[in-house]
Design brief:
By secondary structure, this protein is α/β, with parallel strands linked by helices. Helix content is about 35%, strand content about 25%.
């Protein structure tokens, strides 16, 4: 298999405009993500996909690979699909979040390993919930898995619901999983995904992966033990700086 890693990066984030270019101890966030992805053994190529000249010029300045994409994409998945309209020869595309500057390259390799199974169409990572605070945090989507490790539902609520058990005890009864927002797609499947209309489940939960499940696609998962630190707001950046450089 030949695997490409694609890092979607847009400038106009509603909660943190310009965050790909924010400085983190001497390197921009997008440069850190790119460098981490380049250490993944499974990737033949890594490309940053952006719609902004400021980001593109910066990526070129540190020697990174970049492709300009349209501004009207609704998701990183759509941006990845446009990249694959301009380059070919890859069997699987990995959609790497551009706001996780310390992503573990081994996570990327773990995700790629899901495609050792010929039947895998889409794959993503999950991590075991460790606290009640995580369990109840709507910004950390939960995943319900079947016996084959496939995702059968994603929700911002704590699911499944344990009837007759106090929520403080839920983690003692069964494992719950948070979703880690990195995806892999067979390139033959990716184009079909972007042609799907928004589903009602997706609209209600604001989780694009529910559109795929709603339309019969299977999502294989792998369990990661690494805690990912995403930067969505300036407050997240302050936390990251303290955790990695000042704490």
């Amino acid at each position: 298999m030949k695997i490409i890693g694609i890092i979607p990066a847009r400038y106009d984030s509603s909660r943190f405009p310009g965050k790909p270019l924010v400085d983190i101890a001497g390197q921009t966030m997008i440069q850190r993500v790119y460098n981490q992805a380049k250490h993944a053994q499974s990737l033949a190529e890594v490309i940053i996909a952006t719609d902004d000249d400021r980001i593109a010029n910066h990526v070129r300045s540190f020697g990174g690979n970049v492709i300009m994409t349209r501004k009207d994409h609704q998701s990183g998945t759509d941006r990845c699909a446009e990249v694959l309209e301009t380059i070919s020869g890859f069997d699987v595309a990995i959609n790497i979040q551009g706001d996780e500057p310390f992503i573990d390259p081994l996570q990327i390799d773990l995700l790629v390993s899901c495609f050792d199974r010929q039947e895998t169409e889409i794959a993503t990572l999950v991590r075991k919930v460790e606290s009640k605070e995580e369990l109840l945090n709507p910004n950390k989507p939960k995943v319900v898995l079947n016996r084959n490790g496939q995702a059968i539902y994603f929700s911002r609520q704590a699911v499944p619901y344990l009837r007759g058990v106090a929520i403080e005890e839920w983690l003692n009864y069964r494992p719950f999983y948070n979703h880690i927002g990195i995806y892999g797609y067979r390139t033959s499947v990716l184009k079909a995904l972007t042609a799907l209309p928004v589903s009602d489940l997706e609209a209600m939960e604001s989780l694009e992966q529910l559109r795929w499940i709603d339309n019969g696609f299977q999502i294989q998962t792998a369990i990661s033990n690494h805690a990912n630190d995403a930067i969505d707001t300036p407050e997240d950046l302050k936390y990251i700086m303290y955790k990695y450089f000042e704490g």
